[in-house]
Amino acid sequence: MNKITCDMCKDLMPLVKDGIASADSCLAVKEHLKECEACKQLYENESTDFLELNMDLELELGKLKRKLQIFSVVLMMFGVFFGLSLTASQEMFYNSLIMPVIGALGYVIFRWKAIYQIPLLLLVMQCLINFLGLARGMEYMPFVAILMWVGIYTIFVELGVLVAGLLHFAFKKDK
Ligand SMILES: [Zn+2]
Question: How far is ligand 1, taken at its centre, from the CA of residue 34, in Å?
């Protein structure tokens, strides 16, 4: 059997752990670990440390992702309410800025499903806001007008979704 030294064993350990060492190297390392307590300790400690670190990192990333999503939902709902309540008012042009942001936030929450989920949300919310406005004695807006406005907003929303999606895609590719 081919014996290896401690130094050779240490060199081979990362390769064995990553599963890219040759069968002979794996065997040689295993044989050495059976006989050498120092290397065995090193091999076991390093692998668990590495695993724990990875798990901690994944946990933290998961928490961060959830926080970002909750934040996006709150911000998006605020934007939807604010933006839609401007419909047919003089400040309506702000919506050409608000709607792309809503689209981008929608991508963070729904990914590509935002393409149809945000317009649907806008339609439902615009109907609701109009109903509430009607109750407060505001002017009645025909359903055709609501459809038209939501249609226009949708164009801006999709722009935001597209930009957010492409940025996300480019960032993933970079990593
Ligand atoms: Zn050794």
Answer: 9
